[in-house]
Hints:
Blueprint: H1 26-41, E1 46-48, E2 58-61, E3 75-85, E4 89-94, E5 104-109, E6 111-117, E7 123-129, H2 130-143, H3 154-168
Antiparallel strand pairs: 1-2, 2-3, 3-6, 4-5, 6-7
Bound molecules: zinc ion (ZN).
Zinc ion (ZN) binds near residues 96, 98, 138 and 142.
Amino acid sequence: MSIIPITVYGDSILRKKTQKVQYVDDELIQNIRDMFQTMRNASGIGLAANQVGLDKSVFVIDLQEVEGYEKFKPVVMINPEIVLESDEIVTIEEGCLSLPNLRSDVDRPASVKVKFLNTDEQEEIIEADELFARVILHEYDHLIGKMIPDRVNENIKKKLQKQLRDISDRKVEIDYPITEK
Length: 181
Ligand code: ZN
């Protein structure tokens, strides 16, 4: 397993829609192991493949370190599709390993139904709410090239501009490896 430098705001791969996975092979399994290790090393709770430079439609989530989620089973979602989103919208503050030190309130559906392949290439459908729904929607966004600044209003986005520039210039202090500019 290895820890991979995380891509940050400004890296073009974060802006592209990722490719669908054709089949689960050894390489993908290795990628997934690296993603978990990279995510945990950075104290993250979710990580999408393009955050470690891979053009693949996969993300991993592990909420075990979060209070109240100690029994959460880490999950890998391959080729995820959002099947249903609740009409109810909630505002929650989010962070992102590709936006070091940035926090912002983001409005998203409160609950979600998602269809995906697991690592045995079996189709699964999960209904999620609260934090789990939030992380699924955030990671799914990565796979379609979207990030927190795309999900906030113009006012908030303006306020984030300087911080976004600093991130893309690597003027950030963080304790996990990120890509070089
Ligand atoms: Zn993120």
